[in-house]
Design the sequence.
């Protein structure tokens, strides 16, 4: 029996990973540790809530009285918990430093000398490389984060590495590109645009719409993490990229076409300050371990659109009833105005 601790397992990628792990590994016992912030939701785990191999613990990762014993009893820690939205980090970076940096520090301290622990996966991001005008980032490239979110993630990424180099905590670091799929909170561009279009609301496209992201389906991400847990080498960094570079305007048009909605819904708005132009990853190192993305982008996007169409129970309460969500959007878009 393998004990696995998933921090941030009530969020988008974490909940997909918990579901994937329980399906793929009958011998795993999974504990989700999550504070349930504005985007962490038990609804994301609704179908595994009664699984006897899964347990949910509500706590802040910085609360060492709760998190440290959980780390110390685990064989594998997969650390997703973070504040994750760039726009929110631009409004206020405080929680990003608290959770992404100090929260990671608390877990790493607990991992020092943890006898059973054989893998600590630090979930980092391609955004730590900063904007990449041409070519693709390799794991050895310089880190040049350019917003408070990516800077907090870069700090955590290097702190995790230092706990391998100094204390031999069995850390591996993964840097994934933009994920998409079911259960993604409707503040990130794909679920925001799908759900806005479903409600015939405008799609706020930043700047000239030509910023490029490399889209990775969350299931492909989960498979990559599984492989890195099994075959990754301690102290190493692995890029995980979907190989689907798409300018935002093309993405927006594809979403509208899939929903049969008019392009008049596109609302050009003022650009995000310091908006990274492009991210792109060289994934040769992970491919050498035996991974390649399986989900073709057009099919993955169509399936994601279908999921949001079929599951309004999941997103409508957030958009219509959650006062914090409504207040955030009111403030956010009042600030922006048209491009
Ligand atoms: P998310 O925002 O959907 O979920 C984050 C989860 O962490 C939530 O459940 C939240 O409640 C929890 N959390 C936040 N602060 C916490 C704290 N102090 N203690 C305990 N739990 C806390 O995020 P996501 O998109 O699923 O991203 C997960 C991880 O993957 C993050 O580390 C992120 O940086 C990384 N990542 C995300 C993407 C992406 O495209 N979404 C790409 C690359 C890397
Ligand atoms: P986002 O989903 O916030 O991810 P990230 O900034 O971490 O890559 O944004 C993806 C891209 O979409 C990014 O270039 C910003 C753009 N974007 C918009 O044009 N409008 C929006 O309302 C949002 C949220 C993002």
Sequence:
């Amino acid at each position: 029996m393998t004990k696995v601790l998933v921090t941030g397992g009530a969020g988008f990628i974490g909940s997909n990973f918990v579901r994937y792990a329980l399906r793929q590994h009958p011998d795993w016992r999974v504990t989700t540790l999550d504070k349930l912030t504005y985007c962490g939701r038990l609804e994301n785990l609704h179908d595994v809530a009664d699984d006897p191999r899964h347990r949910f613990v509500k706590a802040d990762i910085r609360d060492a009285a709760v998190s440290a014993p959980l780390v110390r009893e685990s064989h594998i820690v997969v650390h997703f918990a973070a504040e994750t939205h760039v726009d929110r980090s631009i409004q206020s970076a405080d929680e990003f430093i608290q959770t992404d940096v100090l929260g990671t520090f608390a877990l790493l301290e607990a991992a020092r000398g943890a006898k059973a622990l054989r893998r600590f996966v630090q979930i980092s991001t391609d955004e730590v490389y900063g904007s990449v005008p041409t070519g693709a980032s390799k794991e050895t490239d310089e880190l040049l984060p350019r917003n408070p979110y990516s800077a907090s993630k870069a700090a955590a990424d290097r702190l995790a590495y230092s706990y391998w180099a100094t204390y031999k905590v069995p850390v591996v670091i993964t840097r994934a590109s933009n994920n998409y799929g079911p259960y993604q909170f409707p503040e990130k561009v794909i679920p925001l645009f799908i759900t806005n279009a479903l409600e015939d609301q405008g799609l706020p496209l930043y700047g000239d719409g030509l910023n490029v992201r490399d889209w990775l389906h969350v299931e492909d991400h989960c498979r990559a993490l599984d492989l890195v847990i099994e075959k990754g080498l301690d102290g190493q960094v692995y890029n995980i990229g979907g190989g689907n570079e798409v300018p935002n305007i093309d993405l927006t048009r594809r979403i509208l076409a899939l929903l049969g909605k008019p392009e008049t819904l596109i609302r050009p708005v003022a650009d995000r300050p310091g908006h990274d132009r492009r991210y792109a990853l060289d994934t040769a190192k992970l491919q050498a371990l035996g991974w390649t993305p399986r989900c073709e982008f057009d099919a993955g996007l169509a399936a994601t659109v279908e999921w949001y169409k079929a599951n309004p129970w999941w997103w409508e309460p957030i958009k219509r009833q959650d006062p914090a969500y409504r207040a955030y959007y009111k403030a956010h878009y009042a600030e922006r105005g048209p491009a």
